[in-house]
Amino acid sequence: MPRSTTPLRLLIASVLLLGSGLAQAQYSWIGENGVRHFSDRPPPPSTPAHKILKTPGRMAAIPPAPAPEAPATAPAALKAAPTLAEREADYQERMKKRAEQDKKDAQQAERQRDIAQRCALARSAKAQVESGVRIRDVDATGQSRIATDEERAAQLAQANKILAECR
């Protein structure tokens, strides 16, 4: 019966893998120019001890964390939770602001619709005046009359003035 060598091979591979960590760079230091060096040989003797970051058998140096600044005011966690009345007042204030904003938005939308309608009427009037067709008008007494060239020019100028605001 043949013996299985798979467990033996796994054991040898794991020992070799663990041993390979010893062959990696063991020393780390900051050189004269401020450059970080990594090597399997120790740093030069002229390197000060505080610039040596890692040596064999010693963990990497962890730079000290900056001290936390003292808060100018009491932390939010120490503040008391708002009462039900305060929360209700805040809610009412938010609702009031929202209603005001909705009202402003509605007024702005109405203004935009009015401007769009005015521009459409001005475009229509300009097209009618420029078409060359006679423009018939009814006066206050109910009499029908045809617009003169001066009246047509005035209507065209008025339409152009309104359209200048539309663009």
Give your account of this protein's structure.
The chain is mainly α. The chain contains three helices and five strands. The strands form two sheets. The protein has a three-stranded antiparallel β-sheet with strand order 2-1-3, with no helix packed on it. A two-stranded antiparallel ribbon has the order 4-5. The longest helix has 47 residues. The chain is elongated, with a radius of gyration of 44 Å.
Termini Cα gap:
96 Å
Q: Give the percentage of residues in beta strands.
A: 5-15%
The number of E-state strands comes to 5
Cα-based radius of gyration, to the nearest Å: 44 Å
The neighbouring-strand order within the major sheet is: 2-1-3
Average residue-wise pLDDT = 83
| Gross geometry | elongated
Helical percentage: 40-55%
Class per helix and strand makeup: mainly alpha
Largest sheet: 3 strands, antiparallel
Order of helices and strands: HEEEHEEH
Number of helices: 3
Brief sketch in words of this structure:
The protein is mainly α and about 170 residues long.
Question: Could you give the topology of this structure?
Answer:
Blueprint (H helix, E strand, L loop, with lengths): L5 H15 L6 E4 L5 E4 L12 E3 L29 H47 L5 E3 L5 E3 L2 H18 L1
Antiparallel strand pairs: 1-2, 1-3, 4-5
Helix pairs in contact: 2-3
Brief descriptors of the model:
167 residues; mainly alpha; three-stranded antiparallel sheet; two-stranded antiparallel ribbon; 3 helices; 48% helix
